[in-house]
Amino acid sequence: MDLILLGAPGAGKGTQGALLATRLAVPKIATGDMLRDALRQGTPLGLEAKRYMDAGELVPDSVVLGLVREALAGPAAQGGAVFDGYPRNVAQAASLAGLLDEIGRGIDAVVYIDVPEDAIVSRMSGRRTDPETGTVYHVEFNPPPAEIAARVVQRADDLEDTVRRRLAVYRETTAPLVAFYEDAGIPVHRVDGDRAIEQVQDEIMGLLGR
Questions:
Q1: What domain range includes position 178?
Q2: Of 23, 69, 105, 166, which residue is the catalytic one?
């Protein structure tokens, strides 16, 4: 099964994608993870991406698509994949459709995880990171232990103004993908993501008939 997860930043795509990948026995394809891996391994695509990143530029869609192509060619992805955070726009969606068509596959379903904007802002702006261990806490839902509370920090990405700007970009560039896939006749399942992780996961599996 080839499955796309859509949803705003902070909607829980990463968490749900990891669970789905395990339960469906397919890899999770998240371009951010792939870029970091390619950079760490020094692959040709990783080095190409590094040139753009070092110059403060966005990595071109062609490089990202190359990373996705490599991931789909691996043995773990022969039975499908869970796409987390990719595609990000209609142009990437069209490129992915062409890539899958080349290997005789297509998107089976899209899951749109819907979370109200204020809930996302609360989730993300409340996050705090321990710079020594990388552990992420939340001031309300999972506060850091008292002995390390003084050293945790709020990442710039998690500042409320930054979160709201990211949500605005999402609405402009990524949200139109829902209509894109609906127009293509691909099932789009809307799921209320403002619930417990287990409830969201169980509903997604039910909608997928698993």
A1: 2-207
A2: 166
Mean pLDDT throughout 132-155? 92
Among 155, 165, 171, 210, which one carries the catalytic annotation? 155
CB contact set of 47 (below 8 Å; sequence gap of 6+): none
Let me know the angle formed at the C-alpha of 37 by 87 and 100, rounded to the nearest 5 degrees.
35
13 is catalytic: yes
Is 166 annotated in the active site? yes
pLDDT at residue 59 in the model: 85
Cα distance between residue 125 and residue 110, in whole Å: 28
Give the CATH number, domain containing residue 139. 3.40.50.300
How many separate domains does the chain show?
1
Of 13, 28, 123, 128, which is the active-site residue? 13
pTM above 0.90, yes or no: no
The residue annotated as part of the active site, out of 23, 50, 69, 88, is: 88
Active site residue 28: no
pLDDT at 54: 80
Q: What is the mean pLDDT of residues 171-196?
A: 94
